[in-house]
Design brief:
By secondary structure, the chain is an alpha/beta fold. The protein is built from three helices and three strands, in the order H-H-E-H-E-E. A three-stranded parallel sheet has the order 1-2-3, covered by helices on one side. Helix 3 links the parallel strand 1 and strand 2. The longest helix is centred in the first third of the chain and has 16 residues.
């Protein structure tokens, strides 16, 4: 859930909501899908992810590549993600596996 203290997530959610309203885009889902915990598989979430064409994810403040990142990549959708700095063997490449953006720069 994005809040003003959650780093770039707050910015990204607000920008996407503004773009959705201005452009009349749809169908579009922004924000939490259910109130389920990390301990269970939520079918509503999986159905939405499976039907997505584009997924914009923003990593939680103070850590990188949460499980939603990898779920988004496995969905087959075009994935936008904020940059990671943690070294990874066989790391995904920008514009090959995902598209990097700056969550603090709306025009990026």
């Amino acid at each position: 859930v994005a809040s003003a203290s959650s780093g770039g997530r707050w910015n990204v959610v607000q920008w996407l909501k503004a773009e959705e309203e201005a452009a009349g885009m749809g169908p579009m889902h922004i924000g939490p899908i259910t109130g389920s915990t990390d301990n269970c598989i939520d079918l509503k979430y999986l159905r939405l992810l499976h039907s997505a064409k584009i997924v914009v994810t923003c990593q939680p403040a103070y850590w990188e590549t949460d499980y939603r990142t990898w779920e988004a990549l496995s969905s087959g959708a075009l994935v936008f993600i904020d940059p990671t700095t943690t070294p990874m063997p066989f790391a995904p490449e920008d514009k090959v596996h995902w598209v990097l953006y700056d969550p603090h720069n709306r025009s990026d």
